[in-house]
# Entry
Amino acid sequence: MARTTGSIGKETEKRVLKEALTLFAHHGYAAVSMRQIAGKCGIQAGALYNYFPTKQSILHGLMKVHMLDLLAALDAQPLQHNPVMALEAFARFHIRYHIDKPEGVFVAYMELRNLEPEPYSEVMKLRQKYERFLRGILRDGQAKGDFKIDDVPVTTMAIISMMTGVNTWFRYGGRLSVEEIEKIYVNLVLSVVGLEPESLAPRLEGIV
Amino acid sequence: MARTTGSIGKETEKRVLKEALTLFAHHGYAAVSMRQIAGKCGIQAGALYNYFPTKQSILHGLMKVHMLDLLAALDAQPLQHNPVMALEAFARFHIRYHIDKPEGVFVAYMELRNLEPEPYSEVMKLRQKYERFLRGILRDGQAKGDFKIDDVPVTTMAIISMMTGVNTWFRYGGRLSVEEIEKIYVNLVLSVVGLEPESLAPRLEGIV
DNA sequence: GTCTATAAGACGATAGAC
DNA sequence: GTCTATCGTCTTATAGAC
# Structure
């Protein structure tokens, strides 16, 4: 039986997404050309159009996949009914995921304005779903009297901004390990909702 | 005496910076053309080159001016020797300034990657100077035993990210006034360094 | 100081050979 | 599925008239 070329095509499509993600993250969507993407994939620009009808559709695909992956990973986390434990688990998840996929995070945030209206509102809905998860934890914790929060919606956005900011400075091989950073951010988040976090020092003895 | 056209030129230069800032903030540096900028200013593209030798120099000018203005405004603040008061004053300043100049903030952060090496390192030095100011407050407060901080450098970046995030969601005419938002963020920041912030409610009575 | 005109090339996207 | 070649348009930047 003649080997179909379909399998090669699938590989190429993945490659295109991977290389486009890296290029968009480094230079920005508008500054990257179809020729550059093709070059990184070892093909000619025309061949890209076998997989994506427009440059915009590559960006849309990347952002959609990133948000769906994020939500799926969140969904796969064990459910915590205690608000304090739920918040701690969410903080750990967010930091770990964001350190793990810096390019996807960067593009999903920075290139929102380059999405056309329909893809934009689709991606925004996914973002809001993620935000709603944290907001739910904060509301629950406030209702149960576990947290001290002035304003739940503002605190939701503040916590997400604070944690996502880890991508602006973290690089592997720096002063702190991922585990240490995770623990520091968990304490920061717990502090924000008025909890006295456990001291960091004894925990670190077990890790270092 | 014949009226020189110099005064008109200065006006045009300011206009160019103003319109370029708005366009860059909305669509991104790479997605905006010199023709678009000229169009918003009511002149032709060629005339832009009387003021700026390259498109890059417009971006560089915008970012440099933004960072210098920010540092000058910070410098004009009354000096606080008590770490708690200094941190509260810094938080208020940061929120107010960022709500006041959202376009400048947005461009100064998002377009860093579009700066060529030399302008980039110049702007980064100014950013770091701003970060160093907050880090100094945190170190001081920790040394004096006023703050409980696991890691000063990480907490510095976390606080700045948290506060700068206000620009991603704040719009005038929303549920909260600037004064209310300012107070909420001050409390968030104080919480992060382990301080029990005053309750929000009694304060608000005096404002609303 | 601003204009028109244009250079020199890159852009996204398409057509058709293989 | 990938190639080469190309269309039509847009880009930054410059030159020279006024």
In short: The radius of gyration of chain B is 20 Å. Residues 5-6, 8-9, 12, 43-44, 46-47, 50 of chain B lie near DNA strand C (CB under 10 Å from a C1'). The CA atoms of residues 136 and 178 of chain B lie 27 Å apart. The domain at 56-204 of chain B is CATH 1.10.357.10 (Tetracycline Repressor; domain 2).
